[in-house]
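Appendix B. Chain record.
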Amino acid sequence: MSEKNNDNSSKIDRRDFIKIIGGGAAAIATVGLVSCDSKKGGSENGLAEIPTDKMTYRTSKTGDKISLLGYGCMRFPIREKEDGTEEIDQDIVNELTDYAIAHGVNLFDTSPRYIRGWSETAMGIALSRHPRNNYYVMTKLSNFSKESRSREASIAMYHKSLKDMQVDYIDYYLIHSVGSSEPMRGRDPKEGPIGAVKERIFDNGMLDFMLEEKKAGRIRNLGWSFHGDIEVYDYMLQLHDEGRVEWDFVMIQLNYIDWKYAQAPRNVRADYLYAELEKRNIPAVVMEPLLGGRLANIPQHLAIELKQRNPDKSIASWAFRYCGSLPNVLTSLSGMRILEHLQDNIRTHSPLVPLTDEEKELLENIADQIMETSAINCTACEYCMPCPYGIDIAGIISHYNKCVAAGNIAESSQDENYRKARQAFLIGYDRTVPKLRQASHCIHCNQCVPLCPQKLDIPMELMKIHNYAEDLRQGRL
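Structure tokens predicted for this chain:
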């Protein structure tokens, strides 16, 4: 494996690593709680209760023991440098990575597109400080744009992933976001989404290239992630059925909302996606088990119902148990930004306790109720960003959805909690999103629309939020 000269990439030897996992909770608390989030993260006693040897693992088609909790590396925090520019906070990435590995998490999922293109490099620095056999890397051929779809550009992207992650081979390599509505170049529009797939992996010879890399051992497992058109999903599985390519895994969006409610034009129902993989014995890698955090912040009356049943468990733990209870799920990916979230998810999976039939029915009933709210089906993936006009799309919609969950969206000034809801929405909006990045500045250029995996009409949603905010400010409800 190649090495990089970087102050953050100094190796962790075995003695130091044992100190992290056994020498104590206090040492981790001192480092992790201050750096990751000074207000959150639990106590030293809470850290001591988190097991290091009880993680649930699933076995891949190639015999890898994969942690049922996988680390999604698309939401690490950003910090400002002295010159005013921004960078990924490498110290936090290192600390969270060390803690995850120390507690049994061994799969790390990234992409050339994540976090403004910084994620692979950051993970290369963090992971290369550990023995290579302690972790599995998952990254993607993210050749969405017209400029990146040529054979030369796609191969260059692949080799850059190897270099940035400081590895000689990739354990799990995906064709990223198959079925999305990215524009095609030079093909008949009548070919639709399948034409886009053909352009990305067939016309340029990339599928054959990846299969050759797999034969050479530089790609150990080959798969794809899915967003969008069911016709493309079936087409990709037909390639497997015909023996053109054996898919080792497929990444799908799955959670207890999407199980039966992810219908077009947003996405395909997860029960269909999962069943098609299960009958072919293709392991499923789950993305968005929390639906962009929405299932950790469900409406209060529903959260109370879950807490009454299990006071010691988080609301998020129910969503992870839903995914982990499905036997063909290889791992569920979570983008954990702070130590507190990482700790809670480790507890849930160490070991994972499958749902009972009664609990599964409860969650599906909760899904029915959530779908009756006005929440926007955004997962805060930030594929739509950066906006060319500086709009904080993910921040705006996330604030709106949090207010929906907290019951702070008023339909009328006659509502019993109108004053409280008005204050919570407007003050929270101004605190969360700088005024110059709020929805009022959207010019409806529509550049974000084809980038959204959930097929949202983002400008329309931003207009709805802007109009609601103005109605509150002007007292028009």
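Further analysis of this model is presented in Appendix C.
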